[in-house]
Amino acid sequence: MSKYISIDVGGTGIKYALMDQSAALLDQGEYPTPKEGLDAFLDLITSIYDQYKTENPEALVMAAPGRIDSVNGYFYTGGALMYLNGGVDLKGLLKDRIPIPFYVENDAKAAAMAELWKGAMQDVNSGLVLTIGTGIGGAVIINGKLWKGNTFAAGEFSPIPTNWNGRAMANHQAWSDINCTNAMVRRHAMATGQNPAEANGRTFFEAVNNGDPKAIEELEWFCETLATGLYGLQCALDVEKVAIGGGISRQPILIDTLDRVMSRQYDRLPVWFPASKPAVAACHFSSDANLIGALYNYLDQTNQL
């Protein structure tokens, strides 16, 4: 049985697992993400390999934040991990430490790959995956394959501007400013006189499910604006399905509300408008999605699927 080490690099924690070729988790664990710098990060990745090297793993695969050349294992940016920003040849740095193949993919794209392989996007020819959390990550699927883009940046939805009455700037209001989880929670907290620092997605959806009118109003507005952004993408891509991931996707009322709002938006369009409503679903995987997608990335690139 072939075995693989899969690593999911996050801003606060690094999850890891020993997996077989079907993505079954044989063993797993987690360490805090090193804050000291690149050397500490490399030491930790090496120690995870050392932990499993007697299992004779075929490859070490990784999902991580940032704009990543997944063919060459090169980080153009590293998201919140500043020591991976500015151009880091991670594959080259690990070559002498880890004597097995190393493959890495952006974390949101890895999550989409898990959905494409074994989740909500199986057998989908064209689709979008949006992971909603502190930002809006995601991926584009075309012809049943992940579309990575000319510079590996396809699916970076967070910075899409929401106001086109001016030039694009780094400080413009971006899509993630409106439709990230924190923005939704913060707006509801302010509308109800709560301390935004004490509110979170769990308490917000408790309020929604308990019939709080302010929470329901916020959810409707959140889904209206999210649907408008998706409409813009649909005009460009014309996909058959949209899958929503991130912690809030586990709330059925979010998916139901978004689907209803999108239907209402498309029903309002004149018959000559070209866009048609895609199907809407929740992502199947949550906490293990990046581990599974990292393995898919390796198997796909090495033609083992």
Q: What strand line-up does the widest sheet have? A: 3-2-1-4-8
The best one-word shape is globular
Arithmetic mean pLDDT: 93
SSE ordering: EEEHEEEEHEHEEEHHHHEHEH
Estimate percent helicity. Answer: 25-40%
Structural class: alpha/beta
- Radius of gyration (CA) equals 20 Å
Biggest sheet descriptor: 5 strands, mixed
Task: Give the total of beta strands.
Answer: 13
Weakly predicted, low-confidence segments = none
Rounded to the nearest angstrom, the distance between the terminal CA atoms is 15 Å
Describe this structure in words.
It is built from nine helices and 13 strands. With 305 residues, it is of the alpha/beta class. The strands form three sheets. It has a five-stranded mixed beta sheet, sandwiched between helices.
Give me a quick take on this structure.
The protein has helices at residues 38-52, 90-94, 107-118, 175-179, 181-191, 201-209, 213-237, 252-268, 289-301; strands spanning 3-9, 13-20, 25-32, 59-64, 68-69, 74-75, 88-89, 102-106, 127-132, 136-142, 145-147, 241-245, 279-282.
